[in-house]
Amino acid sequence: MSTRRRAAERRRRKQRNLFVAAIATVLAGAAAVAIALGHGGRTATAAPQTRPVTVTGASLPAFAAGTTDPAVGGAIPSLSGTGFDGRAVRVTDDGKPKVLLFVAHWCPHCRREVPLLAADLRAHPLPAKVEMITISTGVNAAAPNYPPSQWLAGVHWPTTVMADDAASSAAAAFGLPGYPYFVFVDSHNRVVARASGEMPVTEFRAHVAALT
Amino acid sequence: MSPNTVTLFFALLALVCNAFVIGVAVAWLVRHREPALWNAVLDALGPSALTLAAVIAVVATAGSLYLSEVAHFPPCQLCWYQRIGMYPLAIVLPIAALRRDTRAWIYPLALALCALPISVYHVLLERYPSLEAGTCDVTNPCSIVWVRHFGFVTIPYMAASAFAAIAVAMGLTAHARRKEHTHVHA
Fold this sequence. Notes:
The structure holds two protein chains of two kinds.
Chain A: H1 3-37, E1 54-56, E2 78-82, E3 88-91, E4 98-103, H2 108-123, E5 131-136, H3 148-154, E6 160-163, H4 169-173, E7 178-179, E8 181-185, E9 191-196, H5 201-211
Parallel strand pairs in A: 4-5, 5-6
Antiparallel strand pairs in A: 1-2, 2-3, 4-8, 8-9
Chain B: H1 3-29, H2 35-45, H3 49-70, H4 77-98, H5 106-127, E1 136-137, H6 155-185
């Protein structure tokens, strides 16, 4: 092997060693920083985020946007459950018009809708005879923005909240197709309208006005 | 070790990938004005770019498997499309690097360039969920942000960083190969 080729080979080997050292340094540096700064993460919560729910009556058919809703005019099933604080929450035929809102803590659309509605509801509360109940459903402890109780408390959510069970029975009984999900119910316990997805506040208010 | 620690590790590596891409891109953009800089980058990184890309692909694949199998973050539809781009790279690139087969640069480049727009779209979807739909799919919508570090590094952002770095590394490999051939034939 000529001297020049040997020198070139030595240079290549040196470059390779340098490269391996650089890669190892980057990986070790990133690992050290991650270990130093990355502990913690999810907040532990003592309160259960799902609670038993009893559904009575026939479930509503699954809602499909863009079609005539077969549930409109039909009676809603009754729900009996509890809030995050353990207090009893019921959705029953009590002669009051109702707005039911189903939200999932991890859903980006719910996370955008809830603060907007919270601000509007605090500034302009619903008419006294209209009852609004929020059902926290689709709970997943591994998903973002957990726990839902902390999320809703953080935005000062002003309505009664019911915690759905782990199987999301309340959501299934109301034919939920996606989050957020609204069900507007008249004083005769009949469905007036259902909607899935983010809803502008003006549209929400128009639905509420139709109930009174 | 918590998922937060592990994802922070991958987020830091994504930033290193970003620095690599930006550094090479700047050197390439000013190559006519500063040919010495571009030559220095080619000499320093060109011969190792294939190995670098192999390391990025293997680490990204390990990260992807960690997120789904250990941290139990279910991959959404777009995640699967990105996996289709990354997983073959984790096999093809180490083989090419071990064999020092610099002719193989075109295949990983094609895969990385096909997958990169998917990652970019996924990042946009996380930022603007309404691009997908106005509602969250009950099962596993692509707009869920499972991880966010430094305010902007999410899982698809990490994937986009890896694909961009692999594409740039393949470009460097091609340039270095051309330069070497020019020298040999000169």
